[in-house]
User: Fold Leucyl/phenylalanyl-tRNA--protein transferase from Acinetobacter amyesii.
Amino acid sequence: MPILPPSEFTFPDPVECDPEGEGLICIGADLSPSTLFEAYSHGLFPWFSEGDPICWWCPEPRCIIRPQDYHPSKSLLRSMKKMDYKITINHAFDTVIRSCSLPRSYANETWISEDIIQGYSALFDAGYAYSIEVWENETVVGGLYGVNIGHGCFGESMFSTRTDVSKMAFYTLMLIGQENQLPWIDCQLVNDHLLSLGASTLSRQQYLNSLQDVVKQPSIDWKKYQDSVFSSKTIAQWASLSA
Assistant:
């Protein structure tokens, strides 16, 4: 894993500077790979509207999902076995993050600006971000992207243009998390959709305590997965990834 140069910025302790648990920790800095690495290593992530200054958050409570506790629905498994989608890892990061940046049916705006895209793309090139893609023929129809530092896996966003395909990418991430014995995958903010997938919460202090241990562990060997193309039919049974 490449070593990034030290960040020019030092982030404050979230608990000390935000005792009320409102979540906003600080404003400023940049979105360079070193700064993003420093922020995630200390429990912060950027979230702001285009044109606004960069805002760094560490919410109370923290939404996480434990891969070992995740169980896909029977309907999702039926869909994966029925449809002949292909699933890849780290084959089309730019396509995924740009697809995630598009406005949704329930919102006209997106927080994934061009600056965010450039920052996370550079982090991907440095080896600290990942993407999972679901393909229909030669088109990416769903997927997700996130950050990985040690055993810390941080989900950022997902998208789909076909029924259940973002859930297929999410299930693939859970399987990777299970195989690598990740204690949790960070989902950041609580929402009903994540809770429906099996997410739960940790207090901010519990999350930060756990984070300091997991980021010191070996990182996921993404090359193990990215050299292959998987069928949704076989991924549903974990046979392809566990071989």
